Amino acid sequence: MAEAAETLIAKIQLKYNIKEPHAFSNQSGVSTSSDWRDGMGYLTNISFWLADSSKSIKVPVGDIIDVVDTINENHTLVVRYRAGTYPDIKSMTAFLNAPDSVLNYFKHKLFTTIKKKPEVKQDSPALEKKLVILLYMGTSDVQSLQFFLGTTADRINALTGSLKEKGYVDSRGRLTPEGHKYARQIREVEMRDRIGAP
Amino acid sequence: MDEEEFLKFDGDISLAKATEIFTKAMEIELRTHSVIKNCSAPQHDVKEFLTEFGKKVPTLPFSRFMIDTFEKMKLGRFQLTDWRPLLYVFSVKNSSVCALYPETTSGRVCHTTVETIQSLFSNAFKLPCDVEETACVKEDAGECRFKISLQPLSVFQAVFDSIDTEILTEFQKRPSISKDSTTMYKYLDAEVGGVFDNQVLDMSKKLKIPADRISHRINTLKEYGLIGKDYEITEMGKEFLKYLNNAKNLDVEFKSGAKRKTSELLSDELDKAFKKKAE
Fold first, then answer.
1. pLDDT per residue over B132-161, tens digit each?
2. Where are the beta strands (DSSP E) in A4-156?
3. Are A4 and A77 in contact, with CB atoms under 8 Å apart?
4. Confidence of residue B234 (pLDDT cuts 50, 70, 90)
5. Are A46 and A134 in contact (CB under 8 A)?
6. Nearest-angstrom CA–CA distance, A61 and B224
7. In Å, how far is A116's CA from the nearest CA of chain B?
8. How far is A186 from chain B (nearest CA, A)?
9. Are B168 and B241 contacting, i.e. CB atoms less than 8 angstroms apart?
10. What is the Cα–Cα distance from A118 to B109, expressed in whole angstroms?
């Protein structure tokens, strides 16, 4: 059977940043490069490419695990893909940054190409704040947290992991003094919003 | 692969056609963004919508407001087709997003609509949610359908207040509130009328709220699973009551702190005024 011809679906100018494994390390940890590279992003029916003047990365479309749109400080598209070259590393992550309209265009092309289901989950930063508030109010078992946040146990665990990294939650899932301080700040903002205080 | 080899663009679509689609998609996104930015719904209407579960839901002011908002976005003809506590389904006919993908004949394509609905609910209505396209015209369905699952905590914060805290507290104190009372079941399950249960009347007197309003609130707590089918507080109801009580104590602390700050500011202002006068 003849192979399908590779045809271009989208091409954009972007900045990208890749979480890559330590090249000469036996550990399976990954390090985040803080360097954003100016380059191009290409999407064909067969592969997804990132390239700049010195380097290029080519990922078969079938190896893309997920594409997530995140809006934190910047609008960033997160492309997670299987990294076959490194047996110890299950996946790598490419962070893409470009003007909103360009990124949205590329995102929709990626979604369609990988046949991603049209679905948007609750925003992580907002959900994380609600989790902190629930912990602050004394709700701590996963079942209750799942019920109140309307999400899965996996997502609760991921959010708790992120809070641990930030030092707001200890190893037993309880708020640390820093976490209490953060919860009070969130509550204060909520209260000010509610009573219209400056 | 050399860039020159990319002669064909998106299969059979020309570059000009792709640019046209891109421009239309941008127009849709700019329009929806602008509508969401200027959209706000009266909290009273939102609360009414979230505490109504019967046939009249599609005719409520907030339901009409949502349909009008989608009309302004020109995303297609929206209709609220299914509703349950925390879960709503909209169907969309003549979707302008589907029209952007004439070449697609299999697979769901309404990412823009999904994102728009999520942004509208989360940002304009302050109701964070998950949104999923469950059917698409591009997959041979007669219409596109979107399932919205609201975050319970945010809904509870919008719906319940100190009176509900009192009601839940009463249920916790008296778990057998209605075990021996068939009359209360009748009253609660009928919308209006029926025979009043003494305990509902007690609550009504204590809280100075008409008994039918108490019943409506109890039904709402029941619909959201905070009171069980047998009219006993559920485990989640107990957890939520704990949350409400802790929040109440913290709110008192915050308000007294805010008052203190206000009086400190006032005395600073007075000090300044006196100093100015003395000068």
1. 999 999 988 999 999 999 999 999 999 999
2. 8-21, 30-32, 37-44, 47-51, 56-60, 64-71, 75-82, 91-97, 119-120
3. no
4. very high
5. no
6. 43
7. 8
8. 12
9. yes
10. 7
Q: To the nearest whole angstrom, how far is the Cα of B153 from the nearest Cα of chain A? A: 5
Q: What is the pTM of this model?
A: 0.79
ipTM score of complex: 0.78
Residue boundaries of the structural domains of chain B: 3-153, 160-279
Cβ partners under 8 Å of residue B129, min gap 6: A122, A150, B118, B121, B122, B148, B149, B150, B151
Cβ neighbors of B216 (< 8 A, separation 6 or more) are B51
pLDDT in tens, A135-166: 999 998 999 999 999 999 999 999 999 999 99
Q: pLDDT tens-digit profile of B77-135?
A: 999 999 999 999 999 999 999 988 877 777 888 999 999 999 999 999 999 999 999 99
Of B10, B111, B258, the CB nearest to A197: B258
End-to-end alpha carbon distance in chain B: 81
Looking only at Cα atoms, what is the longest distance across chain A? 69
Phi then psi dihedrals of residue A18, to 5 deg: -120, 135
Asked if A56 has any chain B CB less than 8 Å from its own CB, the reply is: no
Cβ(B234)–Cβ(B226) under 8 Å? yes
Q: Which of A135, A105, A124 is nearest to A41 (CA)?
A: A105
Side chain identity at residue B191, one-letter code? E
What is the band of B278 on the pLDDT scale with cuts at 50, 70, 90? low
3-state SS, residue B188:
helix
Residues of B in contact with A127 (CB under 8 A): 128, 151
CA angle A7, A10, A11 (to 5 degrees): 110
Q: Give which of B110, B153, B248 to mutate to test A binding, by max A Cβ within 10 Å.
A: B153
CATH number (3.90.1520, 3.30.70, 2.60.40, 3.10.20) of B3-153 reads 3.90.1520
8 A C-beta contact, residue A95 and residue A77? yes
Label residue A187 exposed, middle or buried (CB < 10 Å: 0-12, 13-18, 19+): buried
Q: How far apart are the first and last CA of chain A?
A: 69
Let me know: does B243 contact A134? Beta carbons within 8 Å: yes
Q: Which residue has the tokens 């070449």?
A: B103
User: What is the pLDDT at residue A30?
Assistant: 36
Q: Going from the N-terminus, what domains does chain A have, and what CATH number goes with each?
A: 8-113 (2.30.29.30), 124-191 (1.10.10)
